[in-house]
Amino acid sequence: MNTWYSEGLEHVWLPYTQMKTASKPLAVVGAEGVRLKLDDGRELIDGLSSWWTAVHGYNHPHIVGAIKKQAEAMPHVMMGGLVNKPALRLAKRLADITPGDLNRVFFAESGSVSVEIAMKMAVQYWKNHGQGGRTRFLSFYGGYHGDTTMAMAVSDHEDGMHGVFGDFVPGEIFAKLPEDEMLEKALDEILAKHSGEVAAIITEPLVQGAGGMVFHEAEVLKKIRTAADKHNVLLITDEIFTGFGRTGSMFACEQARIVPDIMCLSKALTGGALPLSAAIVREHVYEAFLDDDSGKAFMHGPTYMGNALGCAAANASLDLFDAEPRLEQIQAISDQMEHELQYCQNIRGVKDVRIKGAIGVVELKQTPDHEALKKAFVEKGVWIRPFGNIVYLTPPYIIEADDLSQLTVAIHEVLKG
Ligand SMILES: *Cc1c(COP(=O)(O)O)cnc(C)c1O
């Protein structure tokens, strides 16, 4: 084993990992297209897009080229009082492609931070309107919005990954997704009960990702928008996972034909190359912060906000969405997974098989031995990482049919045992 691996591993702390018992992480030395190259010469077909980021595959020459070019010109400059061309170009482009009058972009570096920003914006929006009492949030069971403190507060901490911190985070208001008339009525009642306290509803549109890849119909999202309007609270849609095509449309909320008041984006924003996120707001939200005295200004500013390298990568990623048929590729992936994963339905221990856009999920009746499954997948030359009771695929959109088949066949064979 390399010394960089053995020496470094003594000092690094891995995410969501019991360091005492976890198997050793794989050493990746390169990546190209849908393939991860390991230090020992093996290659794995990637089924996850590195936590849903690398939608154009790894090391896409157009993105790498844009980063190199920007690195030579200027990697970064602070955004306080200074702006850079990639950031302004990206702001304009995001305003153009997001629905409705989502026109004003606030940049940050991670998804969780964009959620914190959206929440702070919602609170200050009401304060600026003279309603300082609105400091609470309504979110949904099964939801996940990030790992920072307030993002945890609006994530489901019962079944989620934040159970330990249940006593630490402020108690927010949880409801069930309004998937039927009774639940719609329940949501309405909760909002009525907390009227005057709630700043915003926050939701993951169409797919609750880290909460277990649970899907809901566009109609449900529409009902949430209607409830927000009726009770006069803002709607934040967290499209950090769903944004940029994953559910079959560029943004999930397009399928419900709704416009949130604030939209959070990250993950696939730079095509998996660099950390970057954005909270994008509608005109009426932005206008609430305009005033002749500075008291209404939005008080937030991450150090690396609008990072020129990250924004250059994001612009390059958007170029690829323009130049290449990504939505058609997503449809093809969807159709192929629909066809090939259905065979898992017959395996004992499988509870459900479901597909939405470029997300394929095999849900098991019980939580499997994650380490054993992961190992079996690696032996078959694929990178698939089950969590909870699901085994899922979120492949890069450029994956070829043969490679996707290797992923679906591996799932079938490993689960069949
Ligand atoms: C990943 C994710 C986040 C958190 O983003 P980070 O970049 O990990 O902070 C928030 N919301 C959703 C829906 C996510 O999938």
Report a brief summary of the structure:
The protein is of the alpha/beta class and 417 residues long.
Largest sheet, spatial ordering of strands = 4-12-11-10-7-5-6
Oligomer: single chain
**If helices are DSSP runs of H or I spanning 4 or more residues, what is the number of helices?**
13
First-last Cα distance? 31 Å
Class by alpha and beta content? alpha/beta
Strand content: 15-25%
Total beta strands: 16
Unreliable stretches, pLDDT < 50, 5 or more residues? none
Shape: globular
Approximate helicity band = 25-40%
Largest sheet: 7 strands, mixed
Mean pLDDT, rounded to whole units?
96
User: What's the Cα radius of gyration?
Assistant: 22 Å
Task: Write a concise keyword list for the protein shown above.
417 residues; 4-stranded mixed beta sheet; binds pyridoxal-5'-phosphate; 16 strands; alpha/beta; single chain; globular; 7-stranded mixed beta sheet
Question: How would you explain this protein's 3D organization?
Answer:
The chain has 417 residues and is α/β, with parallel strands linked by helices. It contains 13 helices and 16 strands. The strands form 4 sheets. The protein has a 7-stranded mixed beta sheet, with helices on both faces. Strands 1-2-3-15 form a 4-stranded mixed beta sheet. The longest helix has 18 residues. Pyridoxal-5'-phosphate binds next to helix 5.
